[in-house]
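Postdoc handover notes: sequence design on the structure in folder B. Input tokens:
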């Protein structure tokens, strides 16, 4: 913990840095933010690079020409941000996720502003975001900003342990991303219900006829409509998510055989072929990178 810049609370307007009562953390674990905001960086961790809670920024936008990390930022007041469609005003308590390598621009030009943010390293961060179905460069309303901040604090607490537990860190990040993605999902129709079902458990045995029954249409109509809306067929989405999960298991120390079985493949050669096509290397090479405890 530490102050990152000399800004008094009076300069932040009507945004108070006291810890919200809605935090998911019990009171004895909530920090007193006061004039010192939470910010930390982990240079050697394989998933989390850095995070910040309610960091005050001076007037003026931030422009980043795309780093190597997945970047998520929630803004505590209406803030101009760059979306997929161009610059727009994000409402208060909205979160934006930017993919690695994309233009990131955000911040108020005429006043001090606050944001809470998280940098996740690739490839693990991108895989978790894909599994969660997290929308990119689009505002996601946070129904409970305190829960988002509480998740960041809990993640910071685990990463500050010596040593931290890589499995706990990955689980906390996965839960955080899934909660955000859930907030972004509209009620939808049968096609979206199939998408949610696949993303909830991509390794389950999913027959196209069963998915079509859930969507209330024929298998042919489901594939055509799903492709138009989501850019690929239901089976292709499930395969991509299963491969993403397998990649995370391999990075966590699982053997190729264990990862294949856990993600629904009985044919190791088929799994290896699909994995190599998706990630450009064999599962054994991916596993060799190994986990990092931070």
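Designed sequence:
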């Amino acid at each position: 913990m530490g102050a990152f810049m000399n800004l008094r609370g009076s300069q932040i307007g009507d945004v108070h840095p006291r810890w919200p009562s809605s935090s998911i953390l019990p009171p004895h674990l909530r920090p007193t933010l006061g004039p010192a905001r939470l910010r930390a960086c982990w240079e050697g961790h394989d998933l989390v690079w850095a995070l910040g809670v309610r960091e005050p920024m001076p007037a003026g936008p931030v422009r980043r020409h795309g780093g190597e990390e997945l970047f998520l930022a929630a803004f505590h007041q209406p803030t101009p941000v760059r979306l997929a469609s161009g610059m727009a005003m994000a409402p208060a308590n909205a979160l934006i996720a930017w993919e690695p390598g994309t233009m990131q621009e955000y911040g108020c030009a005429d006043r001090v502003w606050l944001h809470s943010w998280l940098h996740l390293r690739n490839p693990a961060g991108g895989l978790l975001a894909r599994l969660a179905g997290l929308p990119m460069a689009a505002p996601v309303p946070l129904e409970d900003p305190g829960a988002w901040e509480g998740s960041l604090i809990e993640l910071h607490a685990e990463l500050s342990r010596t040593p931290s537990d890589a499995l706990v860190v990955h689980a906390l990040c996965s839960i955080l991303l899934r909660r955000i993605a859930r907030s972004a999902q509209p009620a939808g129709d049968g096609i979206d219900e199939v998408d949610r079902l696949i993303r909830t458990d991509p390794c389950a045995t999913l027959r196209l006829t069963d998915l079509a029954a859930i969507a209330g249409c024929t298998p042919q109509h489901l594939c055509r409509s799903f492709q138009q809306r989501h850019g690929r067929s239901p089976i292709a989405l499930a395969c991509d998510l299963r491969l993403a999960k397998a990649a995370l298991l391999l990075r966590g120390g699982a053997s190729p055989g264990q990862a294949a079985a856990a993600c629904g493949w009985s044919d190791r050669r088929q799994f290896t072929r699909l994995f190599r096509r998706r990630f450009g290397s064999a599962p054994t090479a991916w596993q060799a990178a190994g986990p990092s405890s931070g």
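Context for whoever picks this up: Confidence is low (pLDDT under 50) at residues 1-26, 29-36. Don't rerun without checking with the PI first.
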